[in-house]
Amino acid sequence: MIVLGLSGLPNAQDHLRRTNPGIDKLDERICQGLDSAAALVVDGRLVAAASEERFTGDKGTGALPVHAIDYVLREAGVTADQVDLIAHGFDYERHRRAFELTGAPFDEVYASATVVDGLTTAGWERVAERFRPVRHHVAHAESALAPSGFDSALVVVSDGMGETESLTVYRAQGGQLESLHTQSIATSLGILYGIATRFLGFQFNSDEYKVMGLAPYGDPERFRPLFEKLARFDADRGAVVIDWPSGALAEAEQGYPHARAFLAEAAFTPAVPDGSIQQNEADFAASLQERLTTLLVDLVSYWMERTGETKLCLAGGTFLNCKSNQSIAELPGVDGMFVQPASGDDGSALGAAYHVARTEGGGLAPVTGPFDPYLGPQYGEDDVRAALEARPDLTWRYVGQGDEYFADAAADIAADKIIAWFSGRMEFGPRALGNRSILARPDGEKIKDRINGAVKFREAFRPFAPAVLDAEVDRLFVTRNFEPDRYMLCTAKVRPEARHTVDGIVHEDDSARIQTVRPDLAPGFHRLLTEVRERTGAGVTVNTSFNVKGQPLIMDPATAIDTFAGIALDRLYIEGFVVEGKTK
């Protein structure tokens, strides 16, 4: 059985822009159905997945993922006609009447026909009879449950909104999801964090990670009373309660102006972001982050006690917040935890495919190892050589992927150079996990400033993550070694005695968002870090995504080479080629 999973609502953002001429760039993601992606499950096993943005360069696009679909089919060696079922990570049809009564553009934006018609226009046949809409939160839940390997677990989904929900708690047993608790979008933690992000001058539903990065520079005590009054946990019902003033969530497409006005009156008028750290904004971010973490910890604790479950599966954009994930992982009752690396809406494509494969496609293959996030395209020597030959202004050499290649890259890192590393299949999800990465020595000279300023062109307060050999983790960090550590989804405290070794990746709160590298998932990257350890004494590097501000994670050789040529990297290591830089 072959199941194609899709995410995205292809008309949603176009409708938003057309009906809101002159919309602020910061508000262009206040709509459903962004981050479109495709995933393919064959005989119960996930074989490929990719986000559409990686092919088009339009970051976060919700367009019909025609390029991603083409890729996953080619990767599996199947045609469109051979796909048995098409799973979509939204099911608005159940709410058609309610949406139509509100005057919402249902047929244009939310209807399943927008995807069915799009595929038909793209040349697909028999789409409607193969099409299976999946409830959005069910898709998120399956995206974490299916690859976790847990027979029994508490599954929590939290995001901005599904069709009408913003938070759902499930109990999973034997692969079946039992819904225990759900909340509407009026009490959405994702929307709360998004409005606060927009209040601080960052893009809604995009830049929340910047607020998380800013938070450790602030004092949470200053605005704690505001957030404690605004959002609380109801221990009688096991529910998050958010007490927005009446009308605060109106005019969402205009950037929630009423909610932002409420926050300004209760707190301050924020400055326009300029990349620096402003104390008001940092204190506000710290209070927001503290409240989110407290609420999630209370929620998970309540439902773990209520169900007796000790294993957790988490998905939805809220759980890309690695600081909150750390606090959840540290709960004493948790003895296993899996967070879907693509917890945003791109991951709902694979969750929808998993769900339909489980319920209609003969079941899922047994989980025999860790979830493999390297699901995207890969390129060979001929692809890279052709891209390099199109750039006669660059100096390069081919050495192959043998001992010399890994030794040279490790020597560059040891010598405090900043390199790009392009290898194998592209990662699925927002984190670069060593196949499309920028790497550097974590104790390098002003390494954070050098990468932020001359390479990534981003805010100076943004932290960097370390990739660390599994054998080195406990020596350098304090962590429970749960699965999220593999995927850069959890922060960990840096051991005081190890700080000098990793000074460039230690955040203001003495934490770091680690990626534990083991040979089973990333043998090449593990080999490189082993070479680094031989030269520096520590198998750890800075690991940040190979892209620049506003650019999706790089997918292909041509984009990698062009990007390398435009930024201050010392070398690019790409499938056995070493690119030195521009000719003299």
Automatic annotation (TrEMBL):
Residue span, Carbamoyltransferase domain: 134-353
Protein name listed in UniProt: Carbamoyltransferase C-terminal domain-containing protein
Family: Belongs to the NodU/CmcH family.
Upper lineage: Bacteria, Bacillati, Actinomycetota, Actinomycetes, Pseudonocardiales
Highest taxon above the source species: Bacteria
Native source species: Actinomycetospora chlora
Domain Carbamoyltransferase C-terminal residues, every copy: 410-580
Spans traversing the lipid bilayer: none
